[in-house]
Specification:
This protein is of the alpha/beta class. Helices cover 34% and strands 24% of the residues. Helix 1 links the parallel strand 1 and strand 2.
Amino acid sequence: MSFRRYLLASRSPRRLELLQMIVHPELIAVCPPISSEEAGFDDCRDLKAIRTRMLEIARHKANQVREQLNEDEVALHERPRTLIIAADTTVIVHDAKGVPIVLGQPPVSDDWREVVRTWFLDYYAGQTHLAATAIHAITPDGRSAERVVETRVTFRSDVTPWLNWYLLTGEPRGKAGGYALQGAGSVFIDRVEGSLSNVVGLPLEALLELFAEVSLK
């Protein structure tokens, strides 16, 4: 089955740009969830728990949009040929004891630069972290598929020469982990192992696989 409408459950312009690489823009509609509240990761003590929570978040976003769909569409023939896509991207680092820590977006408060500076110096410089995205795709009639995609990102050892400059660009704001691989943040990257689009926020390779999975159900 080919889908005739794709609903992106996200306000992220980066995710929209990525989706438009594999789906014709005229078939895409942006339909963010009404509520932006999400569960946190404070009670997640290992990678398995973090992955489970990420899937829960993506699933919740998609189901919100599914419930928002106009009830008048229920009887329409085209309704089963609509696909809702939701995602949750985060950065996972490890503390000195090897315990995983989830870094979301920098705070909206005025001290966001100091927070991001700490992330760069304590968790990024010369180290490898995980950029992870949970994606969930579901049709209005309930056929769904999901997965978590992880990419290993290694930063160069000496980030200090450009760190002040980078913080002044303001680019870290609104970015998971406080940097943008597709932007000026690329100057800090030494190596990427895995999906590049996943680090940006939507793993296109895995998303194409989900399209096929849902179509076969």
